[in-house]
Specification:
single chain, alpha+beta, 2 domains, three-stranded antiparallel beta sheet, rod-shaped
Length: about 110
């Protein structure tokens, strides 16, 4: 899964919606007839809706992946606590390496 910023870059690389909005805005300023203005307004609304859906979808995906990451980390710490209770003679701890938890038993990292 791509992170949200990469998804936005990929989407805008293909769609160019922000440039389209700027173009529509300049066309709206130049439009003279009410029909043309209404059509351009409708295009602007559709583009803004698609952008809003994109951003809300990416935000939701990022939130869900963050929750999943948190659950995995919590389970990792819970497992380390259980191992410590089963074997009190071992020194079991959890350290972080590159933002991921690593279990350490008696000073040695285990996979």
């Amino acid at each position: 899964m791509l992170n949200p910023s990469e998804q936005i870059e990929q989407y805008f690389g293909l769609d160019r919606s922000p440039w389209k909005l700027l173009n529509l805005q300049s066309r709206l300023k130049k439009a003279k007839s009410p029909e043309a203005r209404a059509a351009i307004n409708q295009e602007i609304e559709n583009t803004v809706r698609s952008l809003a859906l994109l951003y809300s979808n990416l935000h939701q995906e990022g939130y869900q992946s963050g929750l999943e990451f948190g659950k995995q980390n919590a389970q990792f710490y819970a497992d380390a606590e259980q191992y410590q209770q089963r074997a009190p003679h071992l020194k079991i701890e959890v350290r972080r390496h590159d933002r991921t938890p690593v279990m350490v038993v008696n000073g040695r990292t285990i996979d």
